[in-house]
Write a structure and sequence with these properties.
Layout lengths: L1 H17 L2 H13 L15 E8 L4 H6 L4 E10 L4 E2 L4 E3 L3 E2 L2 E5 L5 E3 L4 E2 L4 E2 L4 E2 L4 E2 L4 E2 L7 E5 L2 E6 L3
C-alpha cells in the first residue's frame, strides 16, 4: 500500500512540475472521476479526446496534458516519438469511414510521428501518414502524405517549405 501511495505522489509531483496546478486538477477530475479519456494511461487535457491505440514516447504526455481541443483517433494506430510536442487543436486521424457504410472504418497503416517533431495549432494529420524525425508541421496544415526527416512542412495540402539544418 505504501509503495502505491508513493508511486501516485511521485507521479502527481512530476505532473505539477510540468503543467499548471489548475489544469492538472481538471485533467484528473475529468479523466479519473468522470471517465473522460479514462482508458488512457497518461494525463489528457480535459477538452481533448483520445480514442483507439495510441503509443507515445518519452515526454509526449506533457503536450497531451496542456494542449486543449485536440482529437487523436487511433483506430488504425497512432505512434508518436520521444520529445515530440503539439499545440492546441491538433487532429490526428488514423482511419476514414467507409463511404458505403459509415459504421465501418477503412484499414490503413498507423499514423507515425517521429522523434522531436513539432505540430502547430489546428494542424490535421490524416490516415497512413508518416512524419520523420525533427520535422515541424505548420499551424493549420493538412497533412495528406508522408514526409521525411528535418523538414518544415505547411499548407493545405501540406508541402515542404524548407529543410532544417543543424
Amino acid at each position: 500500500m505504501k509503495r502505491l501511495i508513493k508511486k501516485l505522489v511521485l507521479r502527481m509531483m512530476l505532473e505539477l512540475r510540468e503543467i499548471p496546478v489548475n489544469v492538472a486538477f481538471l485533467n484528473r477530475l475529468f479523466q479519473r472521476v468522470l471517465g473522460v479519456n479514462g482508458d488512457v494511461k497518461w494525463p489528457v487535457h480535459y477538452t481533448s479526446r483520445c480514442v483507439g491505440r495510441i503509443e507515445i514516447g518519452r515526454n509526449v504526455w506533457i503536450s497531451f496534458a496542456v494542449s486543449g481541443n485536440c482529437y487523436i483517433q487511433g483506430i488504425n494506430g497512432v505512434v508518436i516519438g520521444d520529445d515530440s510536442i503539439f499545440a492546441p487543436g491538433v487532429k490526428i486521424i488514423s482511419a476514414n469511414h467507409d463511404v458505403n457504410d459509415f459504421s465501418k472504418h477503412i484499414p490503413a497503416p498507423p499514423v507515425t510521428i517521429g522523434k522531436r517533431c513539432w505540430i502547430g495549432t489546428n494542424a490535421v494529420i490524416l490516415p497512413g501518414v508518416s512524419i520523420g524525425n525533427n520535422t515541424v508541421i505548420g499551424a493549420g496544415s493538412v497533412v495528406t502524405k508522408s514526409f521525411g526527416d528535418n523538414l518544415v512542412v505547411a499548407g493545405n495540402p501540406a508541402k515542404i517549405i524548407r529543410c532544417i539544418t543543424r
